[in-house]
Design a protein that fits this description.
Helix content: 40-55%
Number of domains: 1
Number of helices: 4
Order of helices and strands: HHHHEEE
């Protein structure tokens, strides 16, 4: 004779409790998944924004270093040829005053040459394609790698003599204007210096 195993039947009270627990587990899992998804989206958004901000900051820092380098080259040029700078600047101011019709000035002893001496000092004149202080042609810039790693559309350097005491002392300003490729903004970097000239004994 085979003994029959007793049939165990679940109480009808326990079934809704199990369904409630499984429903709560699904809700908890969906809530955690939603929170993780929102955190992931927020992280990716902040990461993409910080990447763009980091690239802009890097461009600004590199642009400033490039401009400071140009200003140092311009300063070296002034130190190397101080008399040429001062005489040519005064010549330029004199001819500007005459062109403006300012009275009481004697006519120039020498007609204005072309290019003018100060224009020649700054290097911005036709026929001078290799001036480092101003925009180089793309072919020369690519061959020399002068503006790498920046993508620069154009740059220029300006000299100003704000005050002078004959040839002994002068307050000079060097301005570099720099525009990056694809940018409408032109960044301006200024360097002011109080220069004195003494005789070397």
């Amino acid at each position: 004779m085979h003994e029959k195993s007793p049939i165990v039947r679940e109480s009808p009270l326990k079934t809704p409790l199990k369904k409630n627990r499984s429903g709560m587990a699904i809700m908890v899992v969906l809530s955690i998944a939603s929170i993780l998804l929102l955190l992931g989206v927020a992280y990716l958004k902040s990461f993409s924004q910080s990447t763009v901000t980091g690239k802009l900051q890097l461009d600004q820092i590199q642009s400033e270093f490039f401009a400071r380098g140009l200003q140092n080259i311009a300063l070296f040029k002034i130190k190397r040829y101080p008399d040429f700078f001062l005489r040519s600047y005064r010549h330029m101011v004199y001819h500007r005053r005459i062109a403006a019709g300012e009275g009481g000035l004697e006519p120039p002893l020498v007609p204005a040459p072309n290019p003018m001496p100060f224009t020649k000092f700054t290097g911005i004149y036709p026929g001078n394609p290799r001036d480092l202080l101003n925009h180089l042609p793309d072919g020369i810039d690519t061959a020399t790698g002068f503006s790498e790693p920046l993508d620069i559309a154009t740059w220029s350097t300006q000299f100003s003599l704000l005050s002078a005491e004959d040839f002994n002392r002068g307050f000079i300003e060097i301005v570099v204007n720099l525009q990056l490729e694809g940018k409408a903004t032109v960044n301006t970097y200024r360097m002011s210096l109080d220069a004195s000239q003494t005789a070397r004994l």
